[in-house]
Amino acid sequence: MTQFTPISRGYFHLLKRNLLKMKYIKYFTEINKSDLPLVGGKGLNLGLLTQERFLVPNGFCITTEAYWKSEGGPHPRPLSNCGERGKSEDSLNACSVPFLKTVEIQQELKDEIIDAYKAIGAGRVAVRSSATAEDLPDASFAGQQDTFLNVQGATQLLDAVKRCWASLWSERAIAYRRNQNIDDSKIAMSVVVQKMIDSEVSGVMFTVNPQETEGGRKCPPTGGIRGGLKAEGGMVIESSFGLGEAIVSGKVSPDHFVVDRNSLDIIEKIVSRKQFMITQDGEVETPESKQTQSSLNDEQIKNLAQWGIEIERFYSAPQDIEWAFAEGNFYILQARPITKFGSRKSEVGIEKLRQEEIATLRAKSDPAGTVWSSFNLSEVLPAPLPMTWGIIKKFMSGRGGFGLTYRDLGFIPSKDVDEHGVLDLICGRVYFNLSREAKLYFNEFPLEHNFNALKKDPQKAIYPKATVNIKRSTAKFWAKFLYYVYKMSVSESKIKRIRKDFDRVLTGQIFPKFREYIKEQRQIDLTKLSDQQVLDKLNEWIHETLTVFSRDALKASIFAGLSYANLETAIVKCFGEEHSERAKTLIVGLEGDLTVDMNLKMWEVAQGRLSLENFLDEYGHRAVGEFELAQPRWREDDSFVQKMIKIFQTSEEIPPAPPLVKGGTSPAERFNTQKTARQKAEQELDNLREEARGQGKEARQVGRSTAVMRQQITRELEFTQRYMPFRETAKFYIMLGYELIRKSLLELDRRFNLNGDIFYLTPEELPLLTEGQSWDNIISQRKHRREQWLKIDLPEVIFSDALEEIGKRNWECGMRNAELGISNLIPQSAIRIPNSGVFQTLQGLSVSAGVAEGIASVVLNPANAPISKTNYVLVCPSTDPAWTPLFLNACALVMERGGMLSHGAVVAREYGIPAVVNIPNATKLIKDGQKIQVDGNRGIVTFLET
Fold this sequence. Notes:
- With 946 residues, the protein is an alpha+beta fold.
- The protein is built from 31 helices and 28 strands.
């Protein structure tokens, strides 16, 4: 049996000689429980394991005292202020970048670090951050600070130490502390320096099984099991050849073993194809003979599991352990508590919320089945706070601006839509209720979204089309059948009449009038108004923006979508299915899109042609995630704009764009290129129409049969090109009013000392602010509830007969369960590599033509996007105008949600880059750094590296 051999006595003797003279260094052998504030959780665990004689690679900690006392070192107060403003550059907060350039490690500390480095044998070491919060002894901060491997020599070591210190103020570390409510002033950084083991095999071990669900159904492994820990059971070991970084980073699908905790019997074994391995010299291809070979034999698996139980017993808590195997021995590299098992109370609370949500949805379900889909507004407002949700829910009801738009066009929304709207909030996230959406048009009319068809192919629910089902018609419908025929005729006539010149009405009357209204209202000094007057202004601004103005502004979006759909249909009918993609090339390079104009102006700021002040005068009311009222507008905080300007300035150094991404680096050049492409496409369409007239009797008959279609193409093309820019332009104007709404809420927040938490109240509660009651408990409860809600995994599409799927990690389970017929949103046409969970292709919706290859850059928030990357494939959930500058350096776009009229699709076409959308969980299925091909002609994403 392989044993954990004791640390050599020579090592202890060597350390003892150095202990007396060390002021800022603590070797693993001298660390005790009281040293947590000095060495952090990671350092403490390694020290305790070493003294228990588990085989831990030699090492030492540079204490937090060194962090505080280093000349020019970071100070929590100014740096945390920078963090709150969201400034970041690559993985480091912008505030820490100057620190990296200017800090000088004091000579005394340098000498100690180098002496300690020599004492453990010098050579290659791993340098890891070990953060500590003095009042949170259980905080592990796993994955929140940086780690540097294969560091060799004094110069590299000292540089890595500085970078570890700086990583305390990275964007992800700050976000983690905000989410955990950890005070920046109580945080400090130790640095762990540990000998690198040239491991033959390495991996992770969980002393309780994180994959067995409470219902007993097991989700097969996918190579990334660090999240979603729910239940107890056997021990889980994952392993691969070489260094463990390959597993942690997700670059390889590891072997997976489950071991019974009592008998140590191996109850599950899955051996993956391990094409790559990471060694101390970098990433290499695994020898062919070893790729499908188990990285551990049965005896090794049982031995490792036994030591896992010993470590768990030592800590009296389930452990997440990183280990390595070399020269016949297992080494412990890290051990930390599995934090999601740390609070059974929290786990029970989340399960209770999950069951409450399921019960609520059952009550809302249509007897014939209800589908909830995260499309449309949920693309730009995925998880609204209570204030924003209260305002938006009314706006999207039958009596709000959204519903009134449909009424103006002759439709008759049902009473259900009037009262409840078309949106539901599920676990804090916005979903369209497709049963109610179908009732938006004509009350009692038997329109529906076919439940069985959507269940068979959930992707169709992302942008669904309602159909008539006579079987669901009621006696009331047949009694009013002629009335509905008449109303449908009236609606069709209204749409034709209003569409004829409504774009001119918008630009000539409605937009100027609303802009003038906003200009006047901005002059109002809210601080001079009474509480009731501020409330009155808030209600007025909500009404004027989201009812009066929006009911007109949204008509243009409806006309754009209707005209484009008609254009596509007419082209296919007239020229054949092979020309189905032609419509996309006819809607690029269009004048009047204010989002495109905004991007051009931002580029002018980067070139020094326009001042930032002038830019913010026109566009300062926009924001990242701007439909959330809690988000600061650029006029309040311009840090994001500053970063985007840097991206534009960096783009001047981009190498020549690939052939499929033409037009240079200037947005103006890109726009002009697309305008020329559109004009060429229009000429090609004219040529096709002339050819369709043909020569000779048979051809003339064909020509006559398609004459009506040709006329419809001409008409619908004109309307499409006229109305397409208005979808983004309408948002520009709505956000002008949104800024006023936010302004009044901030004034109330200031008066009643809510410290920014007014957005956790609802609109109906605002009049109660004057009564003097404390809102602290209510706000605290809502924050906690929201935090728990957002821990519940949700699929993109929810079916009323499968509500128990809520809370399951669909994107993980789906990869291995596809053959079992379990509903999931992995695209049905996706092709997997045989006998693995790795995909070769993903099928989505094509929204911008072309083909491009590049390295995937997975971005969840544009504020965190890297500045220096070029010619990458932007992979993201969805986009709004704040994302636009990121398209400049991209060669292609992949989105989880969206359609032809989504912001990302519009900008991709304007920039001439291929785009594929509607690939659920793309940000999880595609790994950052993978090489992929985006085929915007066929809507396919191909993995060139697995």
